[in-house]
Amino acid sequence: MRLALGAGRRRIVRQLVTESLLLALAGGALGLVLAVWTLSALYPIVLSAVPLPEGLAAGFSLNLAPDWRVFGFTLLLAAIAGIGAGIAPRCKRQIQS
Predict the structure, then answer these.
(1) Which of 4, 17, 73, 93 could lock onto 86 through a cystine, CB 3.0 to 4.6 A?
(2) Burial of 20 (0-12, 13-18, 19+ CB in 10 A)
(3) How far is residue 18 from each of residues 1, 24, 66, 76, measured CA to CA in Å?
(4) What is the pLDDT along the chain (97 residues), one digit of tens a residue?
C-alpha cells in the first residue's frame, strides 16, 4: 500500500525495522520487569516451601538481585530479533525477484 502511495523501498524497510525494533525492545523490557517482580514475589514462597534443617535455615539466603549484564544481554538479543524481523520481508522479497 505504501509503495503504491509513492514511498520508496528504502523508506518502507526503514519503517518496518523501526516498528519491529520498538516492539521487540518493549517486549524485552516488559519481560525483564516481569522477571524481577516474579523473583521478588516467589522468593518468600520458595523459602517457606523448602524444608531446611534449623541450623541451616537461619543462615540461608539467596542473592536474587538483578544482574544488569544479563538484562543488557537480553535486551541486545531482543534488538537483534527485532532488526531481523524487520529485515526479513525485504530479504524474502529480494529472493523472489
Answers:
(1) 17
(2) buried
(3) 18, 10, 28, 15
(4) 566 667 777 888 888 889 999 999 999 999 989 988 888 888 778 777 877 777 776 776 777 777 889 889 989 999 999 999 888 877 776 676 6
3-class DSSP assignment, residue 33: helix
Give the Cβ contact number of residue 82 at 10 Å.
22
- Whose cell is 526503514? That residue is 14
Q: What is the dihedral of CA 61, 62, 63, 65, to 10 degrees?
A: -110
pTM of the model: 0.69
Q: Residue 94 is placed in which grid cell?
A: 529480494
Region for residue 65 given its phi and psi (left: phi exceeds 0; alpha: psi -120 to 50; beta: otherwise): beta
Three-state secondary structure along 1-27?
CCCCCCCCHHHHHHHHHHHHHHHHHHH
